[in-house]
Design a protein that fits this description.
The protein is α+β, with helices and mostly antiparallel strands and about 550 residues long. Helix content is about 20%, strand content about 25%. A hairpin with a 4-residue loop joins strand 10 and strand 11. Helix 1 crosses helix 6 and helix 6 runs antiparallel to helix 7.
C-alpha cells in the first residue's frame, strides 16, 4: 500500500508548484494620488498603531486598543506577494492611522475614496469602515482614538444581524461652530462573504455623491436631501411659549345629544336563550353515566385501607354511550336570542364646535441657517484612520485610494480587484480533483480500479488524520463503514446458523479393515464416556492391552 506521508507530501508539493506557476505576481501600481496605499514593505513608515485608551460613557471601565495589526498575505492568496493590513485579534478594539503628505481639499474637485475589505473568517459583528481624519489631527498617531475628529466615515459594518455600508459626514453649524453627524438614510446593505469586496465613494463639489459596491453604483443623490438629520434646519419652529386655549375644542365627533333610545329597546335581553323547539334524540340513555368504574381494575395487593384510605377503581368511558346519541340527563341547548340588542348608545355626529387639531404657532427659527453647498463647509482631510470593534478576526484591508479621480480609482481596481476577485471565487469552489493528470480514472472505464484508488487514498489519509479523511472523502468513508458493518453482520449470522445446526460428533471404533470376532468383542466391551464427561486414561490403557492380547 502506498505511503500516506508520501501521498500527502506529493500532493502538497504539486499544489505548491501549480500555485507558483499559475499565480499572477503583485507589482506596485504606477498610478499617482494624494494617498495610495498597497501595504508594501515600507508600510510601517506611514502607519502608526494606536496606544490610546477608550473609556465607556458610564462606569469608567477602560478598554485599550489591544487589537493586533499585521501586514501579511491573505489566508487564501491568489496573487503572489500581494499583502494587506489585517486586524488580527478577535473581540478587541483596533485602531491605526496614517497621515497624508499634504491635506486634501475637495471644495473644487471631487473626493474619491476606494479600498478593499476581506472578511477572511466570514462576517460576525465586525466593522470594516475607515475614517478620513480632520486636518490637524492626522499626526496624533499613538493617541488616535474614537474621539479623534474626522470628516467622512465610509465602509462596511456588520451589525449582528445585518450589514450596511456607512456613509457619514460631520457638518459644522455656521452659527454655533458645533459639528453634527449626518447619516445616509438608506445605506446599501450587501451580502458579505469571505471574498474581497471593493467599496468606492465619490463626493462632488456640487454636494452630490455616489456609492459603488464592487464597481456597481448602489446609492446616489444629494447631501442636502438623502441624509438625516438634514443639513439645513427648518425655517420656522413651534413657539415654545404658545399654549392651547382652554375653550379650544379638538374633539371631531360626539354622541348625538338629541338621539333617544327606542321604546322597544331591551338592554336586559340575554344574548342566548333556551331552544324551546329542541327535542331529546331517540335512544338517549338517561340512566347511564358517561364514565363508569373500570370493571377490570383490581386493588393493588400493597394497598392499605387504613393508611391509604378506601380504594376507588379508576373510571373509564361507558361503552354503552359509544353507540348511543348521549348519556345522562338531557338538557335543552341554547340558541342566539333574536331579541338581543345589547346596550344602547347614541349615534356619533360631527361636532359643531370642532375647531380642528391645535398646534402652536410658528415663529422664525432662531437657529436657522442655509447651507446650499455643504461640501464647501467640510474640513480638509489630513489622514486616514481605522478605528473599530470587531468580534471577527483577520479582517484584511488593501489598495486604499484617496484622491480626486474616479478614472484613476477604476484603473487601480482593474490592476488589483478585477484580477483578484475572479481568482478568489474560483479558489473558493470545491476542488473536484487533486490530480493534474487529464487521464483520471473513472468508474465507467475501470470500476474495480476506480474503487481501489478511492479506498487507497482514503486509507492513506486516514493514517495521517482520521477526521480530515472523513471530511475530504465522505462518500468513501461512509461506504467503507457500511461495508464493514454489513460484513460483520453477515459473519455473525453465519456463525449463528452453523452453531445451531451442528450435530454432536461421535467417535467411531470401526476400522477400515473387516473386524475379527476378537475385535468385535473388544469394541462392544469398550467403555463409553457419559455426555459431558471425560474418558479415563486407565480405561484406555486396559482397552489397548485387551486389544493386544
Amino acid at each position: 500500500m502506498r505511503s500516506a506521508a508520501f501521498s500527502v507530501l506529493a500532493f502538497a508539493a504539486t499544489a505548491a508548484l501549480a500555485q507558483a506557476d499559475d499565480k499572477p505576481v503583485f507589482t506596485p501600481t504606477e498610478i499617482k494620488a494624494p494617498f495610495l496605499e498597497q501595504f508594501t514593505s515600507d508600510w510601517a513608515e506611514r502607519w502608526t498603531p494606536s496606544e490610546a485608551t477608550k473609556k465607556t460613557p458610564v462606569g469608567g471601565e477602560t478598554f485599550s486598543y489591544v487589537g493586533e495589526w499585521k501586514v501579511e498575505e491573505p489566508s487564501i492568496s491568489v496573487i503572489a506577494g500581494d499583502e494587506g493590513l489585517v486586524a488580527k485579534t478577535k473581540a478587541a478594539h483596533h485602531a491605526i492611522s496614517a497621515p497624508f503628505g499634504e491635506p486634501i481639499d475637495f471644495k473644487s474637485e471631487p473626493l474619491v475614496v476606494q479600498y478593499e475589505v476581506k472578511y477572511q473568517k466570514g462576517g460576525n459583528c465586525g466593522g470594516g469602515y475607515i475614517k478620513l481624519l480632520e486636518d490637524g489631527f492626522q499626526t496624533s498617531g499613538k493617541e488616535f482614538s474614537d474621539t479623534t475628529p474626522w470628516v467622512v466615515m465610509f465602509g462596511p459594518d456588520l451589525t449582528c444581524p445585518g450589514t450596511k455600508v456607512h456613509f457619514i459626514f460631520r457638518h459644522k453649524n455656521p452659527l454655533t461652530g458645533e459639528f453634527e453627524e449626518k447619516h445616509l438614510k438608506l445605506p446599501h446593505k450587501p451580502s458579505i462573504e469571505k471574498l474581497t469586496n471593493l467599496y468606492t465613494l465619490v463626493i462632488n463639489p456640487d454636494s452630490t455623491f455616489e456609492v459603488f459596491f464592487n464597481g456597481e453604483s448602489k446609492r446616489s443623490g444629494s447631501l442636502l436631501e438623502e441624509f438625516e438629520p438634514a443639513v439645513n434646519p427648518e425655517k420656522e419652529v413651534d413657539d415654545p411659549l404658545d399654549t392651547k386655549p382652554e375653550d379650544w375644542v379638538d374633539t371631531k365627533r360626539i354622541a348625538d345629544p338629541e338621539a333617544v333610545k327606542p321604546e322597544d329597546w331591551d338592554e336586559e335581553a340575554p344574548y342566548e336563550i333556551l331552544d324551546e323547539e329542541a327535542e331529546k334524540p331517540e335512544g338517549w340513555l338517561d340512566d347511564e353515566e358517561l364514565t363508569i368504574p373500570d370493571p377490570d381494575a383490581e386493588k393493588p395487593e400493597e394497598w392499605d385501607d387504613e393508611e391509604d384510605g378506601d380504594w376507588i377503581a379508576p373510571t373509564v368511558s361507558n361503552p354503552k354511550c359509544e353507540s348511543a346519541p348521549g348519556c345522562g340527563e338531557w338538557k335543552r341547548p341554547f340558541k342566539a336570542n333574536p331579541d338581543y340588542k345589547g346596550k344602547w348608545y347614541a349615534p356619533m355626529i360631527d361636532n359643531p364646535e370642532y375647531k380642528g387639531e391645535w398646534a402652536p404657532r410658528k415663529i422664525p427659527n432662531p437657529e436657522y441657517f442655509e447651507d446650499l453647498t455643504p461640501v464647501k463647509s467640510l474640513e480638509k482631510i489630513g489622514g486616514v484612520g481605522i478605528e473599530l470593534w470587531t468580534m471577527t478576526e483577520d479582517i484584511l484591508f488593501d489598495n486604499l485610494y484617496v484622491g480626486h479621480s474616479l478614472d484613476d480609482a477604476k484603473a487601480l481596481a482593474a490592476e488589483t480587484f478585477d484580477i483578484k476577485k475572479p481568482l478568489e471565487a474560483a479558489a473558493a469552489k470545491p476542488v473536484k480533483s487533486v490530480d493534474d493528470d487529464d487521464d483520471e480514472l473513472t468508474f465507467g472505464e475501470d470500476p474495480i480500479g476506480f474503487i481501489r484508488e478511492k479506498v487507497l487514498d482514503f486509507v492513506d489519509l486516514l493514517k495521517l488524520d482520521p477526521l480530515l479523511a472523513f471530511k475530504t472523502h465522505p462518500e468513501t468513508g461512509a461506504a467503507l463503514a457500511v461495508s464493514t458493518l454489513t460484513f460483520l453482520g453477515m459473519v455473525g449470522v453465519l456463525l449463528g446458523l452453523i452453531g445451531s445446526s451442528q450435530k454432536p460428533v461421535v467417535k467411531s471404533s470401526k476400522k477400515t479393515d473387516a473386524p475379527s470376532p476378537d475385535d468385535k468383542k473388544v469394541t462392544e466391551a469398550a467403555p463409553v464416556a457419559p455426555a459431558g464427561g471425560e474418558k479415563k486414561e486407565e480405561g484406555g490403557a486396559k482397552k489397548r492391552a485387551a486389544a493386544a492380547k
